[in-house]
Design brief:
The complex is a heterodimer. Helices cover 53% and strands 12% of the residues of chain A. In chain A, helix 2 packs parallel to helix 4 and helix 7 packs antiparallel against helix 8. In chain B, a hairpin with a 2-residue loop joins strand 8 and strand 9. The chains are: A alpha+beta, B alpha/beta. At the A-B interface, helix 5, strand 1, helix 6 and helix 7 of A face helix 8 of B.
């Protein structure tokens, strides 16, 4: 299965201020070129140079900047090159036609360019969707095939007790796997839609880590788990459900890709409301060139056991990003992988009222 | 199959789910009565006098949450919501509407039976009964002498910590939402200050848990609330 990167270009969006600045710069350069050229030889059609500038703006910068460059081009051309020079007066009606042409070309070409890029994005989305569908149906059918096989054997054939037990385990395990996949797909779809805004609450860091550890207890039962979290109630403003999910996914990833008996360490730190969480393992690690790739959807590590659809890390990173933070992978000193989550501080930590008779008992830091 | 087992009302419109519940609950000695609409569910909650209600939320003639609210107007019968809506806000909505527990689909029979036992035990013992000594697993709270201990080790609690822990202990095994806890411990005006609960829970964990980062007693239900691990 191949990795599916998110589409990058977006059609029809508003051009950034930089694009307008570039359009103005384009006109300035054109003017300088035309002026320099005029010094060397008489150019009959300086306006053609401006048309070229408008075309460039239309193709590369979008409609707004194209119109801007047309307007600036008209002004510059009029001021510097249309007699009488160094005024904005126009004595010859022919130039009005030139001006109209420049605007017209700018509008036409920019809308053509926009349509072409919208088409490209649509094609990219279409491609993404069909790849997603292919991945999803494959990943759903695999457990379904095991369930169907096991259940029909149980119904249609006489099997001994240990086999029966094994087949029943298969049914339960595979059903659970399907459920996880459906949950992951929903999460991923929601996060990729760009409509998720984290529901921030002030949460103690140890609660996030503790709740995550409780949920992966079974997956990590054969590993040695170490934790290092702040002792005091360090509050961070995050969406507790999402961040807990993120930590679960990192721990789950460690459980899946490192041998039994090895160590998995979770450390968390909150300073001034910013949160850092590290999940380190002492497994085989991830070679440098693959460290970004593993965050892509449907990407499985080469040493993978083949379980899971390769969505966990993509979801984890998406969660970090909706919080305005980052999730990166580095090498753990001494071997293994180290995932590092960094979320920026948001707002001021609230105070929890003191209890009567308990001076300074519970002030949040 | 006994004829004396507790009557369980199953309100669920999916025939496959009813079939599975009928078979697995019947095997455990429960007597299952079935409804597949809100209207029938309400009627049977009166006529069949169930000891427990298992309720699906998406029913053909309305939302199961309406049934919970209506039933709560006159009956404390424990209601466990079984729903494919697994989002935290759905769980909170169901619990705040008066449901006793929430089990997202799909679930295993073992899990369901455990939750049913907890719900039935709470209903039978009567919530917040006057027993001065509360014991849940390793936790012991003596209200008269105002003493709490975990595994025989005495812990000193502030008044709010005491109230919080007592509330969780009275509802051991049951999830309490942040707003339920806030209302009970801090009063109705604090219902949006969820960080109060979180900070005090962190303090309680430090006092009660061997490793506060890996709690065994004071469990977090992310995005929903807290639950005191049921000793059994």
């Amino acid at each position: 299965m191949r990795a599916v990167p998110a589409p990058t270009a977006k059609a029809g969006r508003r051009a950034p201020p930089l694009a307008y600045l570039s359009a103005a710069a384009l006109v300035a350069i054109t003017t300088a070129l035309a002026a320099a050229a005029r010094e060397l030889f008489a150019i009959p059609d300086a306006e053609m140079l401006y048309v070229l500038a408008v075309l460039i703006a239309a193709v590369f910068l979008g409609r707004g900047p194209a119109v801007t460059s047309a307007a600036l081009g008209v002004l510059a051309y009029d001021y510097f090159f249309v007699p009488p020079s160094f005024t904005l007066d126009v004595h010859d009606a022919r130039y009005l036609l030139t001006f109209a042409m420049m605007f017209g070309i700018g509008l036409l070409v920019s809308s053509l360019a926009e349509r072409a890029s919208a088409e490209a994005v649509r094609a990219e989305r279409e491609q993404l969707r069909s790849t997603l569908l292919a991945s999803v149906s494959h990943d759903l059918r695999t457990p379904l095939a095991a369930i169907t096989g096991a259940a029909s054997t149980l119904r249609d054939q006489a099997v001994d007790a240990p086999t029966r037990r094994e087949l029943l385990d298969t049914v339960c395990d595979e059903a659970e796997r399907m459920d996880r996949l459906v949950g992951n797909l929903l999460d991923m779809t929601r996060l990729a839609s760009g409509e998720v805004t984290p529901k921030r609450e002030w949460v103690p860091v140890d609660e996030l880590v503790g709740a995550a550890l409780a949920r992966v207890e079974r997956a990590l039962v054969q590993h040695v788990v170490r934790t290092a979290v702040p002792e005091y109630p360090a509050l961070v403003s995050v969406d507790p459900v999402l961040v807990e999910q993120l930590i679960v996914n990192l721990l789950d990833n460690a459980a899946r890709h490192t041998p039994a008996g090895t160590e998995v360490e979770v450390s968390a730190e909150a300073s001034g409301g910013a949160l850092t969480v590290e999940v380190s393992d002492s497994g085989p690690g991830v070679p440098e060139p693959l460290r970004e790739e593993i965050f892509e959807r449907f990407q499985r590590g080469s040493a993978s056991t083949g379980r899971g659809a390769g969505l966990g890390l993509a979801i984890a990173r998406a969660i970090a990003e909706v919080h305005g933070g980052t999730l990166t992978l580095a090498e753990r000193p001494g071997g293994g992988a180290r995932f590092r989550l960094e979320l920026p501080r948001v707002g001021d930590s609230p105070l929890v009222p003191h209890e009567p008779g308990e001076p300074g008992a519970e002030e949040a830091r | 199959m006994t004829e004396t087992g507790p009557v369980v009302l199953v309100v669920e419109d999916e025939p496959q789910m009813r079939r599975f519940l009928r078979a697995s609950l019947g095997a455990e000695g429960y007597r299952v009565v079935e409804a597949w609409t809100v209207a029938d569910g309400l009627r049977m909650a009166t006529t069949e006098r169930p000891e427990l209600v298992l309720l699906d939320l998406g029913l053909p003639d309305g939302d199961g949450l309406d049934l919970v609210r209506r039933v709560r107007e006159w009956s404390p019968v424990p209601v466990i919501v079984l729903s494919a809506r697994g989002r935290e806000e759905d769980k909170v909505a169901a619990l705040d509407a008066g449901a006793d527990d929430y089990l997202p689909k799909p679930f295993g029979t073992k899990e369901l039976l455990a939750r049913m036992r907890v719900a039935l035990r709470h209903a039978r013992s009567g919530a917040g009964s006057g027993d001065p000594v509360l014991e849940v697993g390793p936790l012991r709270m003596d209200h008269d002498r105002h003493e709490a201990s975990v595994g025989g080790r005495e812990v000193r609690l502030t008044p709010i910590e005491w109230k919080l822990l007592a509330l969780l202990a009275q509802n051991a095994g049951k999830v309490l939402t942040h707003s339920q806890i806030l209302r009970e411990v801090w009063g109705p005006n604090a219902s949006s200050q969820t960080h109060y609960v979180r900070v005090y829970m962190a303090e309680l964990r430090k006092k009660l848990e061997a490793d506060p980062a890996r709690p065994r007693l004071l469990l977090t239900e992310p995005g929903v609330g807290y639950r005191l691990a049921d000793g059994g």
